[in-house]
């Protein structure tokens, strides 16, 4: 028997579904745009100038927002040869240190993204009307979500609680 979800849990469940839809849509649109690019260039002999930029921006969308999903499901690549040899208490300490370093790096990325949003607000893509600031906003939002997840995970680790929480619920992938 499953317990009903709290309003906050429902909001985060909706957020994860929406984020997944956005990442899948960006990937699908990128495939379509790249197919247009290849077909127009090699089959029709016509270069469509906007396809290169659009596919690049969609790819960046996948990278930044997809990395948030990868963190949620603990699917980032990691090398655990050394940490697997450590006793459980030292593994816990290594995980805390890794979380702290990750948070620090992500905070620096957020600062850089915020700075670049201001610097590129008036700079637009060469083939269509989109400010570069949107790309940095996506990077800022992705890093902020990852910081929130890592802070939540870090707090749970330090309190000795399981990491199944609102932001980092890894129990169900079939949402």
Automatic annotation (TrEMBL):
The chain crosses the membrane at residues 15-39, 54-73, 93-114, 134-155. One of its GO terms (cellular component) is plasma membrane. It comes from the Bacteria. Keywords: Cell inner membrane, Cell membrane, Membrane, Transmembrane, Transmembrane helix, Transport. InterPro entries: DctQ (IPR055348), TRAP_DctQ (IPR007387). Pfam families: DctQ. The keyword Cell membrane applies. GO terms for biological process: C4-dicarboxylate transport. One of its GO terms (molecular function) is transmembrane transporter activity. Residues 30-158 form the Tripartite ATP-independent periplasmic transporters DctQ component domain. Its main location: membrane. It is found in: Cell inner membrane. It is a multi-pass membrane protein. Belongs to the TRAP transporter small permease family. Part of the tripartite ATP-independent periplasmic (TRAP) transport system. The complex comprises the extracytoplasmic solute receptor protein and the two transmembrane proteins. This is TRAP transporter small permease protein. It comes from Halomonas cupida.
């Amino acid at each position: 028997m499953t317990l009903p979800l709290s309003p906050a849990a429902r909001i985060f469940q909706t957020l994860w579904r929406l984020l997944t839809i956005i990442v899948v849509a960006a990937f699908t649109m990128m495939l379509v745009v790249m197919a247009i690019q290849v077909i127009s260039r090699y089959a029709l002999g016509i270069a469509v100038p906007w396809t290169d930029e659009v596919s690049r921006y969609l790819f960046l969308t996948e990278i930044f927002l997809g990395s948030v999903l990868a963190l949620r499901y603990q699917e980032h690549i990691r090398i655990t040869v050394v940490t697997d040899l450590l006793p459980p208490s030292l593994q816990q300490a290594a995980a805390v240190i890794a979380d702290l370093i990750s948070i620090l790096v992500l905070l620096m990325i957020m600062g850089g993204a915020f700075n670049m949003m201001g610097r590129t607000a008036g700079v637009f893509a060469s083939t269509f009307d989109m400010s570069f600031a949107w790309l940095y906003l996506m990077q800022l939002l992705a890093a902020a979500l990852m910081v929130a997840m890592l802070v939540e995970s870090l707090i749970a680790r330090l309190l000795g609680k399981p990491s199944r929480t609102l932001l980092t619920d890894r129990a169900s992938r079939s949402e």
